[in-house]
Amino acid sequence: MVQNGSITAFKNLFADNLPGLLVLCNLAGSQSRNCHLGHQIVDNDIEEFDRLIRSWASVDGVAMRVKGQEWLAISKSDICSLSETLSQYRKQQEIEVGWRSIGRKDGLTKINESSIKVTITRAARCLYTVAKVDDDQRLIDELFNNCYGFPPDKPIELSAILNSERLTWRSVSRYPSESPYSCLFCLGDKFDWYDGDSSVYSGTGICKKCGAEIDITAIP
Ligand SMILES: [Zn+2]
Predict the structure, then answer these.
(1) CA–CA separation, 88 vs 105, rounded Å?
(2) 209 CA to centre of ligand 1 in angstroms
């Protein structure tokens, strides 16, 4: 696995803190939060979770942010207080999501848009295992290899997800049922895209069927 300096630093502290609950956490749905709420909000999320997990591990242990949105921790604290930490982090809010499409052809402009009120959830994923006195650093690698595809908000024991089906979790409850990716003039759905970013609704291109220009942006 790819190793960075922080993971190495944590591994060096690992043996001194055994036995304990070894925990790997990451923030779920950050990409969506970044898209809809902005990077400043995600920066605040990171700060807040960092404070919470450090506080949890401060009872005879240590927590470290080892990647952008990932933390390793080992502590003598119990699983109930770890659950409480995840609950404290969880937050839901209502936002508007949707799209606006502007089509231009032969001097004519057409506009279509669709947006709905939805719930966006902030949550952290947490995988843990009980590390014994004689466990070594390979246990940390095992957590990294398995920390994906299970719901956030609840600490999951490593052995419980090995060989179990992985699930997709979404922070945004739903999106408008209507898609913006059709031409406002001829209803064609194939375009030569020449601009846009990785947002849910983004793209500027030319309709392959009638040559209209289409420009799709997110609402708000
Ligand atoms: Zn067209």
Answers:
(1) 52
(2) 5
